[in-house]
Amino acid sequence: MSPLSGAVFLLTWTNESEKQVYARRFDGNTWSAFGPSSDSAGGITNGPSLTSGNASVSRDREGIPYVSFTYGINYLGNSEIYALRWNGLEWSYMGTSPSTGRGVSATEERSGRSTIAVIDVGTFVSWQDFPAASSDYALFVRRWNGSQWAPLVPGDTTPVTTRADASLQYTMSAKGASVCVASAQTTDIEVRCATY
Question: Which candidate, 53, 83, 51, places its Cα nearest to that of 65?
Answer without folding.
Answer: 83
